[in-house]
């Protein structure tokens, strides 16, 4: 049996020299990031011309443990393999949705579209790397900050600089997040750049000593696979780190770097000697100044230790007062939000949303993950309906569902015709489409959708024949 890579080579060689009208319309980024337990979509889509016929589509996963088939599409039938049967779903004409990802899903995912053009067979492929994180996406799930051991040359400013780094991230390429820096004066600074797993900050000269911190902003925690709701005091080090910069050592490091800078060949020996003597004199002067500064600092520490204690207590008292005021503001905001939500719920539960004004249908066979069956909604009366899946709120899917699913032959899905579900307390017109005979909307019927806030109801007009039934999927609040 030929390997998958050899098949790709032969297919490319077979099509060499020929011009095809096959085009990719949308393709995922080269690297897609996700977190453990989440779902990720690979939005592949393509278009062909009338003389081109799609024979089949394959999705193949490659990791360090080998290759395996994820799913196949042939004769309009989407067939996932056993390991992916309950986790993968077909979207668009080439896209996939993968649920409940784990770190074992990290690897390359390749789509192969095989097309027959007037008797000539050719293949088109595209690949994406999926990286799945479990906890903070760093080497040991903690954020670390440090100072480079020596001064670095900055080509943009043509000067030696002191650089701080933060991260040890494991992302392939540029991370989908940023870190924020705080200087000793509590001013906020952006990162100067990103290099090989670390965000870095180039300090201005003269260097200001003190404590520098870096952190992932709260609104970006989910992008590095940190659950902000569970970010207790025990793991705050996972999102914040600090480094202390010794001002005197930093300035000496810059002086040493300047002294070691190679001179140009255009300098004469006399000029070099004069420069050398000037640097030595400057170095001695700096050493004397540093010694005097150290003595002054020790004297200031002894003189003002009591003042520092008083200031520290004042800062702590102010911080506690601020935290109490912040907690009060947060509680007031929660109360106001709950009041607005209660008003919205009261408004949305009128009319067809009110209990008793609609019929509840709860059947696990209606799930998009359920195969063929004998469900038929021919005998449903015209009226308002709410759907449940095993007691949990569900909605009619808004994308085409494969045939012989949802416990019926021709599954019914909701076509919003490019729109979205209505806002809470409002309704809009749509249509129910039945997937049959290679058409996602072979039969259609008018539907009215109303958003009741915590659930959705539909005014349905049943079809007059079997076997057609409405599909459902869990509602993502």
UniProtKB/TrEMBL annotation:
Protein origin, superkingdom:
Eukaryota
Record has Disulfide bond as a keyword? yes
The protein's matches in Pfam families, at most eight in alphabetical order, are given as: D8C_UMOD
Which segments constitute the UMOD/GP2/OIT3-like D8C domain? 385-472
Q: Which residues form a coiled coil?
A: 276-306
Signal peptide position in this chain? 1-21
Alphabetic keyword roster:
Coiled coil, Disulfide bond, Signal
Name of protein: UMOD/GP2/OIT3-like D8C domain-containing protein
Native species of this protein? Littorina saxatilis
């Amino acid at each position: 049996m030929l390997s998958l890579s050899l098949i790709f080579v032969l297919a490319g060689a077979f099509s060499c020299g020929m011009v095809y009208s096959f085009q990719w319309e949308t393709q995922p980024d080269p690297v897609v990031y996700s977190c453990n337990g989440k779902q990720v979509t690979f939005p592949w889509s393509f278009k062909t011309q009338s003389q081109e016929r799609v024979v089949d589509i394959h999705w193949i996963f490659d990791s360090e443990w080998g290759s395996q088939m994820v799913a196949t599409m042939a004769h309009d039938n989407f067939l996932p393999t056993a390991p992916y049967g309950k986790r993968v779903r077909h979207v668009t004409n080439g896209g996939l949705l993968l649920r409940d990802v784990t770190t074992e899903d990290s690897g390359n995912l390749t789509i192969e579209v095989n097309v027959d053009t007037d008797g000539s067979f050719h293949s088109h492929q595209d690949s994406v790397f999926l990286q799945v994180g479990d906890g903070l996406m760093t080497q040991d799930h903690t954020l670390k900050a440090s100072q480079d051991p020596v001064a670095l040359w900055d080509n943009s400013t043509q000067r030696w600089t002191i650089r701080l780094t933060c991260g040890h991230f494991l992302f392939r390429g540029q991370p989908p997040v940023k870190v924020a820096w705080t200087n000793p004066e509590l001013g906020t600074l952006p990162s100067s750049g990103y290099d090989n797993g670390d965000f870095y900050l180039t300090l201005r000269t003269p260097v200001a000593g003190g404590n520098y911190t870096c952190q992932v902003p709260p609104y970006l925690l989910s992008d590095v696979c940190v659950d902000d709701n569970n970010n207790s005091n025990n793991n705050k080090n996972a999102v914040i780190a600090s480094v202390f910069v010794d001002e005197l050592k930093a300035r000496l490091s810059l002086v040493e770097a300047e002294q070691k800078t190679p001179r140009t060949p255009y300098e004469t020996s006399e000029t070099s000697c004069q420069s050398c003597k000037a640097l030595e004199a400057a170095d001695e002067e700096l050493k004397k100044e540093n010694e005097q500064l150290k003595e002054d600092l020790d004297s200031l520490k002894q003189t003002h230790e009591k003042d520092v204690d008083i200031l520290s207590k004042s800062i702590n008292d102010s911080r506690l007062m601020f935290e109490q005021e912040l907690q009060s503001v947060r509680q007031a905001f929660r109360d106001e939000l709950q009041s607005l939500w209660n008003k919205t719920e009261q408004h949305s539960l009128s009319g067809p949303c009110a209990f008793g004004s609609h019929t509840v249908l709860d059947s696990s066979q209606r799930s998009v993950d359920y195969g063929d069956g004998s469900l038929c909604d021919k005998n449903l009366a015209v009226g308002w309906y709410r759907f449940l899946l095993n007691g949990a709120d569900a909605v009619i899917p808004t994308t085409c569902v494969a045939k012989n699913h949802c416990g019926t032959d021709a599954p019914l899905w909701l076509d919003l015709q490019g729109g979205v579900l209505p806002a809470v307390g409002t309704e809009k017109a749509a249509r129910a489409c039945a997937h049959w005979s290679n058409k996602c909307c072979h039969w259609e019927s008018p539907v009215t959708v109303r958003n009741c806030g915590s659930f959705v109801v539909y005014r349905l007009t049943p079809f007059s024949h079997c076997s057609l039934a409405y599909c459902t999927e869990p509602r993502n609040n």
